[in-house]
């Protein structure tokens, strides 16, 4: 019999069922310009959250699921124009520093508000998650993860001057 862990465990990537502090939704919102992206959406969200200083945890038991079975009689997936899809893919590649992606200042200016954070680096996230998007390689992944501290020690709200929240509740997961 497999025993359930006594508490949530640190996770290396963000997924639909992971748990993180609720202000992350306000401070690091989903990028609305990633229309049609399915493969890469969760990793890019995880990279953005993690570099902004958020950690994510796997719940102790399943509490949400997605069923892709044909019995639902879906008529396929969402439809995105080829231009929107190409733009989203290029934007995702720029964000994650894929080889030969557009790393120009103009490309980053277009991501205003949806870029990586400054608290931890993308290189550190690659090591933590086991996937290096900068070299398109999979790294050795550890079974047990350890907390990685912030690389910068600036004000906790410096990146979000318009989204300061009350610190009455700091124990939320």
What is the terminal separation in angstroms?
A: 28 Å
β-strand percent reads 5-15%
Rg of Cα set: 18 Å
Strand arrangement, major sheet: 1-2
Biggest β-sheet strands, sense, barrel? 2 strands, antiparallel
Total E-strand runs: 4
The outline comes out as globular
- Low-pLDDT windows of residues: 164-173
Broad structural category? mainly alpha
Question: Which series of helices and strands comes N to C?
Answer: EHHEHHHEE
Q: Helicity level, as a percent range?
A: 10-25%
Helix segment count?
5
- The overall pLDDT average reads 79
Please describe what this structure looks like:
With 173 residues, the protein is mainly alpha-helical. Helix content is 24%, strand content 6%. The chain contains five helices and four strands; from the N terminus they run E-H-H-E-H-H-H-E-E. The protein has helices at residues 24-27, 41-51, 82-95, 105-109, 122-129; strands at residues 9-11, 56-58, 131-132, 137-138. The chain has a two-stranded antiparallel ribbon. A hairpin with a 4-residue loop joins strand 3 and strand 4 (137-138). The model is unreliable at 164-173 (pLDDT under 50).
Summarize the model shown:
By secondary structure, this protein is mainly alpha-helical. The protein has 5 helices and 4 strands.
SSE map:
Layout lengths: L8 E3 L12 H4 L13 H11 L4 E3 L23 H14 L9 H5 L12 H8 L1 E2 L4 E2 L35
Antiparallel strand pairs: 1-2, 3-4
Kindly list the characteristics that best describe this protein.
two-stranded antiparallel sheet, 173 residues, globular, disordered C terminus, single chain, mainly alpha, two-stranded antiparallel ribbon
């Amino acid at each position: 019999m497999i025993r359930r862990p006594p508490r949530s465990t640190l996770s290396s990537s963000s997924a639909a069922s992971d748990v993180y502090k609720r202000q992350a939704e306000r401070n690091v919102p989903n990028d609305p310009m990633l229309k049609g992206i399915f493969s890469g959406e969760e990793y890019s969200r995880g990279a953005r959250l993690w570099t902004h200083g958020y950690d994510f945890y796997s719940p102790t038991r399943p509490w949400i699921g997605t069923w892709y079975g044909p019995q639902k009689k879906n008529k396929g997936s969402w439809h995105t124009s080829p231009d929107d899809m190409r733009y989203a893919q290029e934007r995702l590649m720029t964000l994650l520093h894929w080889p030969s992606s557009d790393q120009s200042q103009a490309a980053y200016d277009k991501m205003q508000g949806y870029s990586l954070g400054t608290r931890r680096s993308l290189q550190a996230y690659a090591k933590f998650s086991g996937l290096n998007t900068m070299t398109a390689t999979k790294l050795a992944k550890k079974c047990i993860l350890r907390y990685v501290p912030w690389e910068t020690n600036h004000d906790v709200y410096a990146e979000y001057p318009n989204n300061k929240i009350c610190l009455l509740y700091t124990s939320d997961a």
